[in-house]
Amino acid sequence: MRMVFRCDPALSDHLPRPIPARSALPDWLRAMPAKAHSEIHGREIRTVKQCPPFVDAMAYGVQILLPCDVAVTSGSFSWAWDIPEPLTSGHPRAPLSFHVPAQFPDTPFAKAGQAAIKFNSFWTIELEPGWSLFATHPVNRDDLPFRLISGLVDSDRFHDGGINFPAIWTQPDFSGVLPKGTPVAQCFAVPRAAPQLEFECFDEVHKTAYSSTVADVLASPGVYRKRFRARRGRLTSPGSD
What we know:
Order of helices and strands: EEHEEHEEEEEEEEEEEEHH
CATH class of the largest domain: Mainly Beta
Structural class: alpha+beta
Shape: globular
Number of strands: 16
Largest sheet: 5 strands, antiparallel
Distance between the termini: 18 Å
CATH superfamily of the largest domain: Deoxyuridine triphosphatase (dUTPase)
Strand content: 25-35%
Radius of gyration: 22 Å
């Protein structure tokens, strides 16, 4: 699977490149202890830092990064980003634009009179035939002051225009700077072919396997990680080792 990112040549030296999500894990996860005391259990228990499904979801796919610092004050957004004029007609220069409230009436995330922000894309994304790009909020990142609205784009066909990423600003009292390099969208390549769904009851083999697996998981830590977790391939780019 290849994901091809392209940008305007005048901006190439000014844009942070999309990066493997694994290299953008947040500081709070890195600083989290592996174990913490539980009053309910009366002992030390493992934290989510030792939960492979939790961490792997955050580490999978590619993160799209904010290209410059954005200052936020009382719901007002501003930036000072000195970049050359793009060489491509119709190309954006601003890191943000907006969707007016009338574009998403009666949705669960609509808030009275509040526009949605839109993280403008400075990269086009091309996938291999039969694959689509699923873009969603950076996984488990409720610490970010916005919530991305998920979308699916057939990027094997639509790859000559940028994909913009709409989001709802969720912290109205936030004042400060959203720094350059903040992950704004986590993207996954997904196959477009619909799966064939099959339904079965456990036979004796599956009942035995279920009971054995559950007993092993409850008996000792790390069973999933040691026996079932697949090795993750490292995302590469041309010239990588």
